[in-house]
Amino acid sequence: MSQPISDTFAQQLLQMRTDVLAQLRGQRGGAVSRAEAAAQAREQQSDDWAKADAERDLSIALEERESAELVAIDEALKRVADGSFGLCLDCGVEIGTARLHANPTAMRCVACQEKREKAQGGSHTATY
After folding, report:
1. What stretches of 28-107 show up as alpha helix (H) in DSSP?
2. Taking phi first (over 0 means left), then psi (-120 to 50 degrees means alpha), and beta for anything else, what does residue 87 get?
3. SS3 of the chain: helix, strand, coil, percent, to 5
4. pLDDT of 28-38, one tens digit each?
């Protein structure tokens, strides 16, 4: 992949990283830790413990998803830096530009990703 194209994707990935970090901070109520945010939420809840627990579980699930997304973004930025960005990890062919625009953290071409999903029982993973 040419340097200008890699630079474009690097900028997109950096913006995605900034957005994910902002979402994580927002979910935590700013700069507080996950434990502090959970304690604050628990204190604000009245007697509806079931609702508070469900909201806490949802918040944790969203934070875990966004943390995984952050890892994928950082891995893609490493691939940009080492020159392997845009190459399928399994077969080595170039990943289509349209696929990378849709998902700049993609690590595999469509064919290899489909093979991987079939081998895993059709489950979708965050390793596109």
Report:
1. 34-44, 49-82, 97-102
2. beta
3. 65, 0, 30
4. 665 555 556 56
Backbone angles phi, psi at 56, to 5 degrees: -65, -45
Measured between alpha carbons, how far is 11 from 67 in angstroms, rounded to an integer? 19
The string of pLDDT tens digits covering residues 71-118 is 999 999 999 999 999 999 999 999 999 999 999 999 999 999 999 999
Residue 94: phi and psi, rounded to 5, are -70, 135
| Domain spans in the chain, listed from the N-terminal domain onward | 1-83, 86-128
pTM, rounded to two decimals: 0.70
